[in-house]
Design goal:
Elements (H helix, E strand, L loop, with lengths): L2 H8 L3 H21 L4 H23 L3 H4 L8 H9 L10 H4 L3 H18 L1 H18 L4 H28 L2 H20 L6 H28 L4 H12 L1 H6 L30 H15 L1 H19 L3 H27 L2 H4 L5 H32 L2 H32 L1
Length: about 425
């Protein structure tokens, strides 16, 4: 291979430039979300996903009353959010005005951006309609072809809305821009909503017309954008907003608008009163960690969420799923409490007392029992009552207590092993 051939092989093309920008964008998003999402957070996310999966399976087996009474047009509310939130991604950058002076490059990046936007709308659309399948097919008796028709209509309308709003951002300013975007959003809502009030062949024809109208509008808007070069500044601004959307979501409650000093009183234990009479070091440390846990509204909210969502999920699930939930949810709460104990004992004020390893271990065991026991016993009682009636309550409580003792003992064993390795 000659030097010229090697240079030609490594030369930049429109496709390669677009691919590099997309890869860099997702790498940046991964780094941003990697600052807050770790293994513990993923375990916490596993809990609502597990509950959602159980509830979803229950919808197929026995749709709840509110779902059975829901009209067909209610299924279009979720696709409306997709249509209203869709963005046309161009991946334009500030330096393009200097270096991408050839119009072919600009049009090429826009064409690839159109393909990226169209493909990007497929994934959330599939997720939305997969969640709606028990309602569409189980309640209203639609076939898979009808669902595919609804999905195609929502996809084409969302794509047209993304391009339409992009063109408005590039051509209008101020009140006129906001008014036109509002009119576009209303048009998209009506396009997705009105066919649901029809029936039979008229409804099918309306959905097909919605698909054709959305695809045709998207095509016309794309051709107009390819011919018009005045949208570059707005494309760059919109891309900056898209790249920073993840960061803005994470820091929305971190950066204060005004330097206000707030002194929030805890909901519980506003005074430093003792809870137990024992002066043993392990009891004092566990008591302090318990009060620190209950004084933090965020931790208390997580604990109450595990309790309430666990009761709901167990009561709405079959027996095999009840056993899995009654065993899995206390494990997640146990991890949360263990993480709280490590954070509490790692504070400088607590570490200055030089606690013995045995005190730390016993305090952790007590804290886990105090905070995990209520959830485990309640879930066991609910599962026992739902499956076996009043007699099952005592059995569920006894099994949950034995399981909780095993989990707490196993956690303590792993804690001793980790302490031995560190020493």
């Amino acid at each position: 291979m000659t030097m010229n051939d090697e240079f030609a092989e490594r030369a930049w093309t429109i496709k390669r430039l677009f691919r590099k920008r997309v890869a860099r964008y997702w790498k940046e998003q991964r780094r941003v979300w990697g600052t807050v999402v770790d293994g513990v957070v993923l375990c916490y996310l596993l809990f609502p996903l597990l509950i959602a999966g159980v509830v979803y399976a229950g919808w197929w087996a026995d749709p709840p009353a509110w779902m059975a009474a829901g009209p067909l047009w209610a299924a279009q509310l979720a696709p409306m959010l997709l249509a209203l939130g869709a963005r046309f991604r161009t991946f334009a950058e500030d330096a393009d005005v200097l270096f991408l002076h050839r119009s072919a490059w600009r049009r090429g990046l826009l064409a690839y951006g159109f393909g990226y936007t169209a493909a990007g709308l497929v994934v959330p659309g599939i997720v939305i309609y997969a969640i709606l399948l028990p309602f569409l097919m189980g309640v209203h008796g639609l076939g898979i072809a009808d669902v595919a028709l609804l999905f195609s209509a929502a996809w084409s309308v969302s794509l047209a809305g993304a391009l339409w709003r992009n063109r408005i951002h590039g051509r209008l300013r101020g009140f006129r821009k906001e008014a036109c975007i509002g009119g576009v959003n209303v048009t998209l809502i009506l396009a997705l909503l009105l066919p649901s009030f029809l029936s039979g062949s008229a409804q099918t024809a309306a959905w097909l017309g919605c698909i054709g109208l959305g695809a045709g509008t998207a095509y016309v808007l794309l051709r107009g954008k390819l011919r018009h070069d005045g949208d570059f500044a707005s494309d760059v601004a919109l891309e900056h907003a898209a790249r920073l959307s993840g960061t803005a979501l994470l820091v929305r409650d971190v950066v204060p608008h005004k330097p206000l000093v707030r002194l929030d009183k805890p909901l519980f234990f506003r005074r430093s009163q003792r809870l137990f009479r024992s002066d043993a070091s392990a009891v004092v440390l566990a008591e302090s960690a318990l009060k620190a846990f209950l004084r933090q509204w965020l931790m208390l909210r997580y604990w109450l969420s595990f309790m309430s969502l666990g009761i709901f999920a167990v009561s709405q699930s079959p027996l095999f799923a009840q056993i899995a939930l009654a065993a899995g949810i206390p494990l997640l709460v146990n991890m949360m409490v263990q993480n709280h104990r490590f954070n509490f004992t790692g504070e400088a004020f607590v570490r200055q007392f030089h606690w013995e390893d045995s005190d730390l271990r016993k305090a952790g065991e007590r804290l886990r029992l105090w905070l995990v026991t209520p959830i485990a016993l309640v879930l066991g009682a609910v599962a026992g009552y739902d499956s076996f009636g009043l007699l099952g309550i005592m059995g569920g409580i006894l099994l949950s207590a034995a399981y909780l003792w095993f989990v707490n003992h196993l956690t303590a064993v792993f804690g001793r092993l980790r302490a031995t390795r560190r020493s």
